[in-house]
Every structure is written in C-alpha cells, then in structure tokens.
Amino acid sequence: MRSITVHSPATVSNLCCGFDILGLAIDEPYDIMQLTETEQPGIVIRHTDQYNLPVSPTENIAGVALQSMIDAVGYTGGFEIVIEKQIKPGSGIGSSAASAAGIVVAANALLGNRFTKKELVNFAMDGEVIASGARHADNLAPCIYGGLVLIRDTPTLDIISLQTPPLYISIVHPQIEIKTSYARKILPTEIPLKSAVVQWANVAGLVTGFLQQDYALIGRSLQDIIIEPVRSKLIPGFDEVKKQCLEAGALGGGISGSGPSLFMLSEKRETADQVASIMKNEFDKRGIENKTYVTTINDSGVKIVNRS
Amino acid sequence: MRSITVHSPATVSNLCCGFDILGLAIDEPYDIMQLTETEQPGIVIRHTDQYNLPVSPTENIAGVALQSMIDAVGYTGGFEIVIEKQIKPGSGIGSSAASAAGIVVAANALLGNRFTKKELVNFAMDGEVIASGARHADNLAPCIYGGLVLIRDTPTLDIISLQTPPLYISIVHPQIEIKTSYARKILPTEIPLKSAVVQWANVAGLVTGFLQQDYALIGRSLQDIIIEPVRSKLIPGFDEVKKQCLEAGALGGGISGSGPSLFMLSEKRETADQVASIMKNEFDKRGIENKTYVTTINDSGVKIVNRS
C-alpha cells in the first residue's frame, strides 16, 4: 500500500499587533507524520513520541481532519497515521495545527491532489477546532502555505501570502502551562477605539515593512498594546526577557500565539543566537525549564519528504 | 521680492478601514497659493475666492502654519499670502490641510529648503490644529508627500509612502454640513475586540492590495465596520449611493475623512465616470446640491508651479 511521509512545521501566529490575522511558518521544530493506505476501512493512529496524545480518530486532531477529507472524497479504504511529534503540545507554536495541516497535505497527495491549499486549510480547521474550540486559521494557513500569511477573512478563508525579507527567529518555550482557552478568556471584550487605531497603524506598518523589506519598520511596528499587556502577565519574567532581547538587537517580538512561547525576529543570525541565549539564561535564572530554537522562515509549508 | 506659487491638492483620508492612519493625495481639486516676501515684517493674507476665510494670521490656518516656520527659522521679513481656494472648506477632502501644507512647502522654498517633508508636516500641523482641534496628519502627510501615505505613529510622525497601482477616484461632495468635531464626537470610545480584529485584518489586506497591485484585494479590503456605520447616518442616501457605485463596478469606497464627501476607487476611467454620474444622480434625486470629481492619484503632493 502507498505511503507518504511529511514534515509539518511549527508556526508563530499573531506576530504582536497582528492578533488572529497573521501567522509565520518556521523551519524548526516540525512534526514527522507518515500516512499509509490500508485495506481495512477506518483510521488507526500510532504515536512514536512521549506525549500520550489520543489515538482515537474522533479525539485526535489529525484523525478528525483526515476523516473530514475522507468524507468529502468518499474514500472507502482506511489509513494508518504514525506521528512523531517534535512540536511540544501546548507550547504556543502551532503544535495542534501542525498535526491537522500535515495530515491533510499527506492525504491529499494519496487521494489524487484534488484539493487547493485553501480547501486543505478548511479540512484542517475541522481537526483543529477540537483543540482550540474555535475555527482559526492563523497557524493552519502558514503551516500549509508556508512563509508569512495574512488571513484577511476567516469565514471565507481569504488567505494572502506575504513576501518577507530573510529573518531569523529566536523562540523560547518556557515549560509552563497556559491553556489556549484561558488565554482567550482573559482578553477584554471591549477595547478603546484609540488603542485599536494604534494597533491597526502598527499592523499596517508591519505588513508594509515585510513587503518593502524594511527591517527598521518591521521593528518599529512589532508592538501589541492590546493583547500582550494582558497575556504577558501569565509568563514570569516576560518584560525583562523582552527588554533584554531588544537591547541585544532583536527587531522585536512578543508572545507566540497564546503563549507561553516567546519569539523574537532578528535581521542577523548572530543576533538571533545571542537573543536565544538571553532567553535561555533568563528563564534558567527563574528556575523555569525551557527550550530554545533559532530558526528561519519556512517558505514551503508542509513538505512531502518520502513516498513509497 | 521673490514669490512662489503652489498647487496644493485635496486628499482623501481614512480610506474606509484605515481610520486616522491612511491618506491619499488626488489630482483635483487643488488650491492655488502664492507666497511673496515683503520687507514689512508680519503676515498679510488675501483671498481671491468666495469663502470668506479669516485673514488674521493668527486665525487663518495658512497664517499659523507659516508663523510656526518663521519662528523656527528666525526670519525677520514679512510675507504676503494670496489664496485661491478651490477645495471647498468643510467638504471632507482636506481643505484645511491643503492650506497648511501648501504654505509650508512654498515658504520652505523661499527660506532655503532647510526642512524635510516630515518637518514640513510638523509645521503644517500647527496650522491645521486650529481647524480640527487635533494634531492629525492623515490629510497633511499625503498632501506634502503625495500619493498614498501611512502614518504609523502620529506623535513621532512615522510616515511611510506606499506604492499604489493606477487608480481612478470618484468624489461627490453633497452640500450638507458636517463639523469635523461633531463627526469625531459621535464615535464610540470603546469598540468590541472582535470588530477591531476584523478592521485590522482589512487594513492589512488593503495595504497588501496596494503594495502588491491587487485590485480585487483592494476592493475586498475597503470595508469599515466601525466608523462608517456611525458617520454614514449623517449623509442622506449613503447606503443607496454606495450600493449603486459598487454595482457599477467600483472597487470600493466610503466616507472621505469625516465627510460629507464620499469617494470611490475604480480600476478603469469609464467605471469612475459612471460612478460619478451615479453619485450625482442620487444626490440630485434627493434635492441635495452636489459637486462631483473624477480624478487620479497625485504622486507629487504640493507642487511649485511658478517662481518669480
């Protein structure tokens, strides 16, 4: 029976001012997923990692996303999914999105490539909704499209790829737990119009900075005066870590997705390395176990690495 | 004594979702301003139009902006300003900004071109504040820079020029009075976070549409779910006019600045002409005197047309 193996990348959503509308695929970490046709109908899921994620197809994100595509196609065979998760669940860098996105890209390849990327995002959302409780595409879309992605409208999936200049991304995952649902619950439901204007001015600046390859403008625009002040309180040491990263020359950064991971963008590799060691040092000092990455933009999204 | 004549263009600020941060200079209408050195210190102002604007230098926008520059330079002579206003005051297409911007560009040319465009915006703001009561740059900046301009941050005047594809702009000025201060007072001070996200997604889409020359994306993004629903109630027939303009093929549009003028962007001249006649027809039907323009983007901003 045929088999496809994919690498499904981590993603940084929001990018400060771009709450719920921007997401960026990164080269590391990524999940490794193998999808194999079986004669026996139904979906069998196996994990080769230590995270004890559900194996029931109706409770596993990849299972639900795959079933959604199977139903649309009318495929009568079965599938076995083997997942080696390297993106730690709950880290805030799109672990659940990687599961959903990886499986639909793999399945599309086995089922005759009949779906567009946009349609794949739609199937993947059916899976991701069981993790986040909401149909959001700001991790899924960059995971499938690659690079930096704007989701202008979620209901119609108006997804636009944005060119970026080369960037280095430093990530730290402090091993504290923040539930996405809680991180969403603490947000204000109403905000001052004045603050909203500041935020959308920065969104406009950020998008312009990327498209015009203007690093300084990207840096000036990487501000979030609405979400970050609320969510950063859940991350011990946030203000100090951020301050030191900026002093070390990072363009800017903040909370990745709903956290707890932090990200910082840098123009140069050496800066990004230094920023990562600052991140590590600061959380070490606070006795918080942490993992850091220095990575680059993943322009391709989910990648097929093996067919057999 | 030396003399400079400038054309100072009208501007469309906000552009729907870009409230307080975007502005566009247009080729027509424009004010004609002549600035002449005088030996007698002080500022003398003359008008050759019918609008009866103040001639006292401390009450006239151009006078205040000019005085601000004179103070900075330490110029000890005087100036005569002759203004032929063609942008009707209170029309919502940057009439007061044109006065302030035109005079500082002219004065800079006579005083040795010592100021950057950003500094000129700053002087002009000193003038415009007496009209609007607030230091806003979303008309002034495009008037001085030309083209489409993003004001990412008003206090530091972080002004960014954005490339646009060719566009035709239809404008209608229904002759009803809306005070800028009233149009600002009726805005909500708090808005739902959900609405703000929709708005900044559209801002991001609009900026991307301009920079990537994507007309369809510009059209999809020209939406304003926050300001327009409130201010459009001040303009009789707004919803019907807008609906008909979109049906005629306009990409999108809405209220220019704080109104009462409406603007619509079109990809083709013929569409823009048809849109303007729809605008005219709709306000005629309602017995509201009106004036329409079909114009293009003014890429140069305030232009020196004569030196003597």
Distance between the termini of chain A: 8 Å
Task: List the secondary-structure elements of chain A in sequence, H or E.
Answer: EEEHEHHHEEEHEHHHHEEHEE
Low-confidence stretches of chain A: none
Number of strands of chain A: 12
Named CATH architecture of the largest domain in chain A: 2-Layer Sandwich
Q: Assign the structural class of chain A, choosing from mainly alpha, mainly beta, alpha/beta, alpha+beta, or little secondary structure.
A: alpha+beta
Strand content of chain A: 25-35%
Mean pLDDT over the full residue set of chain A: 96
Biggest sheet of chain A, in brief? 7 strands, mixed
Could you name the CATH topology of the largest domain in chain A? Ribosomal Protein S5, domain 2
Based on CA atoms alone, the radius of gyration of chain A comes out at 19 Å
Assembly type of the chains comes to homodimer
Number of helical segments of chain A? 10
Helix content of chain A: 25-40%
Shape of chain A: globular
Largest interface: A-B, 38 and 38 residues
- CATH class of the largest domain in chain A equals Alpha Beta
The domain count of chain A comes to 2
Model description:
2 copies of one chain form a homodimer. The first copy, chain A, is an alpha+beta fold. Chain A has 2 domains: 3-162 and 298-307, Ribosomal Protein S5, domain 2, CATH 3.30.230; 168-296, Alpha-Beta Plaits, CATH 3.30.70.890. Chain A is built from 10 helices and 12 strands. In chain A, a hairpin with a 4-residue loop joins strand 5 (148-153) and strand 6. The longest helix of chain A is centred in the middle third of the chain and has 19 residues, at 193-211. Chain A starts with a strand and ends with a strand. The model of chain A has no long low-confidence stretch (mean pLDDT 96). The interface between A and B is large, with 38 and 38 residues. Strand 8 of chain A pairs antiparallel with strand 8 of chain B, so a sheet runs across the interface.
